[in-house]
Design goal:
The complex is a heterodimer of chains A (about 120) and B (about 110). Chain A has strands spanning about 5, 10-15, 20-25, 30-40, 45-50, 55-60, 65-75, 75-80, 90-95, 110, 115-119. In chain A, a hairpin with a 5-residue loop joins β5 and β6 (about 55-60). In chain A, about 0% of the residues lie in helices and about 50% in strands. Chain A has about 120 residues and is an all-beta fold. The N and C termini of chain B lie far apart (about 40 Å). In chain B, strands 2, 4, 5, 9, 10 and 11 form a six-stranded mixed sheet that branches. In chain B, a hairpin with a 2-residue loop joins β6 and β7 (about 60-65). Classes of the chains: A mainly beta (about 120), B mainly beta (about 110).
């Protein structure tokens, strides 16, 4: 299956600083990537849909100025958590829609996740 | 928007028994229903999926059934093994919009 990588796997930062997380599709081109947030023992909450070459679409309640998403190429999307605070500590996971030419819903392949801890 | 409910939240079975996890969805336009398995601290892995034009799909010990009329779908795991222990998420999708259930923590006791 398609492989999605994510970097870094863990990051600890101080309150007020910014952190960038990278999501890469390794063996396919992903015009659309997704960013999720997962709290301990909870489900995956979609934060935003990242589209190559255009602005991301954010879910209701997600601050777009705080969670900056850039999808500058067909294999890379980045999430930058700006002015991080302890409440931003979480597990962030990206995914990419599987490659294919047909329309309709397709499976998503997930990155390994990034555990962010803000002190 | 789509709302996916998943039950039970926790499930404990003896090795060799079957496990069933059920999900309901709200949007009749949803047409793709994947199931993911997530082990602690790891990425969700797709284990089986079903599309709205199919009622049942099986892959070895795992099967999924879909009832479009009732808008519910279920995951069935037979002959459970300790390595099946994980959190399982169902999801319902329309195009790129995929919504997840709350998850079921399955524990298989040896």
């Amino acid at each position: 299956g398609a492989v999605v990588s994510q970097h870094p796997s863990r990051v600890i930062c101080k309150s007020g600083t910014s952190v960038k997380i990278e999501c890469r599709s390794l063996d396919f081109q992903a015009t659309t990537m997704f960013w999720y947030r997962q709290f301990p023992k909870q489900s995956l909450m979609l934060m935003a849909t990242s589209n190559e070459g255009s602005k991301a679409t954010y879910e209701q309640g997600v601050e777009k100025d705080k969670f900056l998403i850039n999808h500058a190429s067909l294999t890379l999307s980045t999430l930058t958590v700006t002015s991080a605070h302890p409440e931003d500590s979480s597990f962030y996971i990206c995914s990419a829609r599987s490659p294919g030419t047909s329309g309709g819903s397709r499976e998503q392949y997930f990155g390994p996740g990034t555990r962010l801890t803000v002190t | 928007g789509e709302n996916v409910e998943q039950h039970p939240s926790t499930l404990s079975v003896q090795e060799g028994d079957s496990a069933v996890i059920k999900c309901t969805y709200s949007d009749s336009a949803s047409n793709y229903f994947p199931w993911y398995k997530q082990e602690l601290g790891k990425r969700p892995q797709l284990i089986i999926d079903i599309r709205s034009n199919v009622g049942e799909k099986k892959d070895q010990r795992i099967a999924v059934t879909l009832n479009k009329t009732a808008k519910h779908f279920s995951l069935h795991i037979t002959e459970t093994q300790p390595e099946d222990s994980a959190v399982y998420f169902c999801a319902a999708s329309i195009m790129d919009d995929m919504r997840f259930g709350a998850g079921t923590r399955l524990t298989v006791k040896p």
